[in-house]
Structures are given as C-alpha cells and as structure tokens.
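Tutorial, part two.
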Amino acid sequence: MLELNDVRKTFNAGTINEKKALCGVNLHLNPGDFVTIIGGNGAGKSTTLNAVAGVWPVDSGDIIIDGERVNKLCEHKRAKYLGRVFQDPMNGTAATMEIQENLAIAARRGERRTLRWGISRKEKDEYREMLKILDLGLEDRMTTKVGLLSGGQRQALTLLMASIKKPKILLLDEHTAALDPKTAAKVLEISQRLIDDYSLTAMMVTHNMKDAIAYGNRLIMMHEGRIIFDVSGEEKKKLTIDGLIQKFSQTSGEEFSNDRALLS
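Running the prediction step on this input gives:
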C-alpha cells in the first residue's frame, strides 16, 4: 500500500542551518498494516508523514501509494489518497459549522459540487450511524456547532472525517498529545476501532512508548532521519518499554534521552 524507497530530505541545504531530516528512508507497508512510529525530537517521525502527505517535495527517492508514484503530486492532489489527523484538535474541522455539515464536507471530498439541497435525509441517517461508532452521544447532537465540542470529542470527529472516504493511508501525527490521559485513551480506542472496521492502512507518530507498543501490528523507531528498528507480529507483542529503550541504545550507540517519551 505504501513504499518509501531511499527517501531523502535536507532543509536549508548549504547554509549554517542545514538539517538532514530524512537520510535514505526505506519503508514498505502492506494493506491493513497499522504502524506506530517512535523516536526522539528531530528523529524524522513527523517529517516522514509530511513526505508521504506531500507537504513539500523530497530531494530524492520514490514515494509510491497503492502502486502509483506520487512524487510529483502536490499536497492537495495527493490528499485523495490520504486521511490525516493532527496534534491540535482544532485542526481538521470547521468550528462554526454543525457536526453533520463537517461530515458532509468530508464525505463529499473529491466529488463534483452541485446546487442540490444541502444534506439529504439519507445522508443524515448515514452520518448518525457513523457517529454511533464513536460512542460519545454525538449522533444526538448533529446540529451542534463543532466549536462547542470538547477537545476529545472534536478529535474523535476529526478521526471519523479522515476515515469516512476509506483512504489508502491514514496518517495520525501525535493526535492524542494535546489531550488529557483519559481522553487520549478514548481517542486511541476509537482510532483502533475505525482502522479495524474500515480495514485501513495507518501510520501513527507518538512520543508515548506504552501506546506505541500497545497499538498496531508493527513498531518503527527512528533516529537522525533513519529507521533503526522495525518490529512486528509476536516479537512486537513481547516488547517492553525497558526493552525498547535498550534496543535504541544498541542500534543507535546512544542513550535514549527524550524526556517527553520517558515521562509518557
């Protein structure tokens, strides 16, 4: 479903602020893979997601989504393949519009715009059933303005909107980092449910080692723009936080010193 072949990206090349962000990243995802990505600050986690999303062009290498090379596609043209949820719950939704209106925008993405009536009764019934998946009672508040929702409710709605068109790849960029622990756990549970129900291929960047181990069928650790550890299946299920820190030290030759990840 996704191939990254020797992908490289350097910011501010040739200047005093030069930063090699991606140094020959190779990554192949099969359909249905749910990959968690962990690493210290500047390891290349979010940069990898931005490369897939087309936020900026890579310097070299190939990015292939479901068999199509997308290197030359700009961000908005690449969006038809992707769903994305950001760290800030305020991103990804229109605060002044109703819940059902936000869902309608997401459901009609990529379709021709017409002058037909806003939201049909059939669409409302479909949206109500979708909202029931979240188990937050939002199906009874479809005319509520999204700006009145809590951060967790809004992030859950964003997840549903990002998944509604069953994208080739769902990108979750630290999407629970701004939430309190209880709400974050609920949003992660919803993430897993949507990925399973819609058979999505997903990549989740997180600083939380416990979540990286608990969720998904595969875990990737990055360091200085490279993938230094890639584990899946039964081996991943046996991982512990101490074991993950030890693996980082073995493969990178350095001590893991990211306070945010360690505290999480």
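The mean pLDDT is 86. In part three we will examine how such features are distributed along the chain.
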